[in-house]
Amino acid sequence: MKTLSLALFALVIVGCSHEQSHNELLSRSAQIVFTQPDSVVRMLSPYYNDSAMTAADRALYGLLYTEALHLSGLNVASDSLIRVSIGFYERHVDDEHLSRALLHYGIILYRQQQVHEAVLSMKRAELLSSDLDLPAFKWYLYCVLGDVNDNVGNHALTLSYYKQALRAARQCDNRQWTVQTLNNIAMTFDMLGQKDSLRYYTEMAQPCYEDTHGEVRATYLVNRASYMLSIGQCQEAKRCLIESRLISPTDRGEKLLADIYLAEGDTAAAIQQWYRLSGSLSPVVAIQSYRQLITYMNRQGDLRGVAEFSQRLNEVYHHLYEHSDAAAVIDLQAQFDKQIKERRQFRSVILLLAAIILVIVFSAIIIWYNRRRIDLLNARFAESQKQYYLTRTELTLMRRMKEREQRENFRQLKDVVSRLHSAASIGKPAPDDNMNALAQLSYAMHPKLRELLSPLGSKEQQVCLLTVHNFLPSEIANLIVATPQAITNTRVRLLRKLFGKTGGAKDFDTAIKEYIKTPIP
Question: What's the pTM?
Fold first, then answer.
């Protein structure tokens, strides 16, 4: 039992270690697949038939291995591996990896001459990656789409894709990719006969030229040689072509070298070049070589050779015709782009309509809320108005009552004052009820007067009240049983006591009357 447990534990450890090695291997490969594809091919090749991988690892392995082979310039014979990756990433909705897998699936189909399906797969990859930040992948994607359009002569779209690839290469700050893309643009303009554009893009590549190697460096030299030939600098062009041949021979460079040999009068060397280039994989180079050979044989009177090479040229044209689906490829891309544009416009319209509906709903809610608030405010205002009218009515009643009270007090005060004047005129002291009535009515009409006189004694208050009501000192003296001089002295004393002033009796009279501010009749 113990032995069995140890064996199971060992299997688990081995399994975990194997899985971990897969993760480390794939992670490392994913980091360098665009910059070191050859290394990725060597790293992944031993695991091609490894059945211990999980579904996710197998999908990533298929993508990275196929991607590395294509980036290395190698063909993939079967699409089974990449189809597994596509299926996995479609199920898990992984747009980044799915777009990469679709591109390489399209490349495989394209090399199998399944052009329609290949272009559709590539366009799907372009669509899925449009909103993703994948500059390295987009550089390769746009280069491939540019090459596809270049093969069918759709030069406008070719240049468009190459220029998008150029932006992606600069975003990656990769000089090799930048020069390679500039080479592609320059070659396209060279094919169109636009030598100024050829020169412009070749000169743009010159600052990065020294940092390139291999075919990219050789192609730059061929482009430079092509421009030199167009301006008549044959020796400089020949020097560039010979240097290019030493780095990485290209059929286009050999064709230009043959043209130089012919211009120099070295027909034998030119003929040798044309013979060799007649089997070129580039249809343009092969056709031009056959034409030169046929022209030469016509001059030599070699009718048999002319017939043979004319037949071969016809076979090249026939092969191109059979495998050329240029109109279909161009139309397919146009239709795809149109559908995507219409779909995006439809989506924009739907979003716009949704936004309008939301605005309408939001506006309706705001209107409803504001109307409810207005109704509430109106109700509050109506209630406030009602309260205002009630309060106003009450105040009016109170004012009227106060006015009636004041009029009654004024009438009573008038009667009291009149009775006191009558008593004073006959030298009779004021009755207590009259003096009390005078005090109550005066204080009712002038509340401040009560506060002012509260510290005084009764005699002093009587002097003040009688003074306020314009009684003469002699009358005051008769009413409170005192001498006029005593009344005068009291008034002088009260001026200082109540108002803190010094002066005569008349000053007191003026001060106390100004204090109440309301004249008393």
Answer: 0.64
